[in-house]
Amino acid sequence: MSERVAVRKTYKLYIGGKFPRSESGRSYLVQDANVSLASRKDARDAVVAARAAVKGWAGATAYNRGQILYRVAEMLEGRREQFVALGATADEVDAAIDRWVWYAGWSDKLAQVYGGANPVAGPYFNLSAPEPTGVVAVVAPERPALLGLVSVIAPAIVSGNTVVVAASPAEPLAAITLAEVLATSDLPGGVVNVLTGRIGETAPTLAAHMDVNAVDLTGVADAELAAELEVKAAENLKRVLRPAPADHDWFADPGVTRMTALLETKTVWHPKGV
To answer: Which residues pair with 118 in a beta bridge?
Structure first.
């Protein structure tokens, strides 16, 4: 009996809730698997998908968004051993699952904690309410691949933003496998879009894109590239989150900084009734 040849998996991009190959047809080899190499056109397509998803995702109730984030945690729990097989430690996978649950719990609390009535002199109500920024482009940290990815995606989408993630080129398998989890977790298509490939090719396109509202440079290790991306982002006054320090502890309590950094505050005046 002849020895069979194993079928090598091709890890595709995740754009608009679908798994297309790169429009360029390119791929590269990681851990004996083919991984799509995203192009600038793929990055633009991902922004279009993210923009199309903003209205529905931001318009969903906070409670519903929390349910969906919790569902992601459930699905990730069921594929725990798969992520361990890809190289994540058991502790990292457990921390990533717990982080989804943590952010899910914040979904219907953000408005109460960071909004409310403001004291004013006069016969008016003055109310402030947090709103999502819109489309956020994210450069994911290289390690820990899974926990770092969850730690930049979850705080962005919990408040109603949509994201385009440039995954680490060295650790892309966790990113696309997480996309497979998201695709089966009731998350609407386009809310999270994942690009694999060269950060230096896709990130400048995202930073300069006029339909991107904020950029999170957490995973940019090259200081020159980070400075270039900040300059490009300034062209339409994008909100910018600076790169994380090399010694950042991703297992520590995440706090609320990432969530609040990607919120806008709308203030409304209303006359009091007589």
So the answer is: 126
